[in-house]
């Protein structure tokens, strides 16, 4: 009786599988038939082989409470200050006894509506109506002052922005000599308002849940190059203030979860 090619290959694979031949390697390696599959029977069990999963939240308080509740001796946390986020790996293990690093908690702070609004408007070119509408929408967070640092009401600031007018004037100089004549023209453009224009806006805001209040100082600028005046807001000391917010984030995290898990600045990819 002759055997088919498929039958011979099956006999060969079965023999190799039964032998379970070990190969020299840094870790356990075994020769197995190509068409054999490894089946994980965990889903048929009453419970899992180990606890694993990812808890995600925007709440700093809830994140801290969860980390304290699930704390383990070898848990590690990694703080990304640029992204205002933190990840804690409860079963990361140690270099000698590494874990699967698939039991984790992830915190991603979400900017408050007010903080998102002030970030979005800074540096944007806004028409008079758009600027006055923005000030009106966020008036509860704002205080205004003029160029001399004198406080003014938000109502007056809105009225001043709405009544800006642009005036242009020209001045010409003529010079005549024996052999030549010259002429120069200088144009002056001035923006003014019936009300005193605001020079500064102070925006009070809690940037993220769980962090303290910040006062963002905005410089009001008027651009008169076009047919209509354009207004811009510039965040004074933006980089330094963002660094301060990020440092506060780390300090608050350390106070809420630092006793339960070792925290480090940076990112970790468990691969």
From TrEMBL:
InterPro entries for this protein: DUF2303 (IPR019276)
Q: What is this protein called?
A: DUF2303 family protein
Q: Which organism is it from?
A: Pseudomonas shirazensis
């Amino acid at each position: 009786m002759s055997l088919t090619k498929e039958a011979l290959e099956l006999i060969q694979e079965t023999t190799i599988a039964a032998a379970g031949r070990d190969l020299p390697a840094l870790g356990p390696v075994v020769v197995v038939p190509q068409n054999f599959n490894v089946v994980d029977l965990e889903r048929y069990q009453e419970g899992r082989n180990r606890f694993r999963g990812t808890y995600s939240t925007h709440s700093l308080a809830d994140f801290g409470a969860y980390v304290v509740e699930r704390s383990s001796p070898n848990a590690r946390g990694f703080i990304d200050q640029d992204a205002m986020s933190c990840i804690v790996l409860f079963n990361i293990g140690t270099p000698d006894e590494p874990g699967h690093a698939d039991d984790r908690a992830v915190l991603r702070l979400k900017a408050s509506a007010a903080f998102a609004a002030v970030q979005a408007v800074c540096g944007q070119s806004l028409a008079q109506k758009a600027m006055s509408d923005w000030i009106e929408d966020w008036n509860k967070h704002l205080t205004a002052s003029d160029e001399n640092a004198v406080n003014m009401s938000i109502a007056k600031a809105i009225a001043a922005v709405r009544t800006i007018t642009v005036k242009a004037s020209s001045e010409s100089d003529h010079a005549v000599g024996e052999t030549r004549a010259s002429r120069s023209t200088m144009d002056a453009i001035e923006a003014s308002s019936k009300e005193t224009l605001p020079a500064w806006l102070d925006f009070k805001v809690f940037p993220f849940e769980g962090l303290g209040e910040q006062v963002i100082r905005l410089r009001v600028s008027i651009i008169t190059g076009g047919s209509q005046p354009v207004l811009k807001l510039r965040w004074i000391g933006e980089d330094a203030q963002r660094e301060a917010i990020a440092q506060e984030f780390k300090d608050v995290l350390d106070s809420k979860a630092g006793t339960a898990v070792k925290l480090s600045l940076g990112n970790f990819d468990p691969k």
